[in-house]
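ugh ok fine here u go
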Amino acid sequence: MGWLKDNLDEMHLYVNKSELLVKDIIWGISWIGGIYAISKTTDKQALSSAYLIFSLSLLMEFGMKIKGKKHWFSRVIDGAFCVAIICILLMAITALVGAPLCGNHYNVMFNISIGIMIFMLIDFLVTWIEPDAKQLDVKEKEEDMKIEDKVGVFEKKLYSGCLGDINKGDDNNE
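structure:
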């Protein structure tokens, strides 16, 4: 059961609930205003541009996070999430350059974007309901480090280095 809990904790898009709330609201608003609002437009370049911007922002945020995953299951789930984003990105680029696509590629992009938003909503609900995850990012790990440890590490780095140890004075010439 611990393996499953570790995988589920690692699958979350964000560990920090406030960051999750803010970014999910932003992507929800951008999807509603950028994709849903103009999904029935006849200006296909504007629609393709909206999909391009939406998918690029998601890919920039989540693409590199797969690399840091430790469990194969969470890598597969997050990888599938990123593949869906890449599909939208490639179809949007193809439509913008005028290359022929299947007749219903805008419907396909719309349906994939709905899937992405549903995944983000489910992740939001699960993250918000469960207690704070035990994973800590680099910033949180540094904040959790005791202040005495920080001062000790800082002083050690301050007084010693490639040129010797400042506490030894003239004995550095050895």
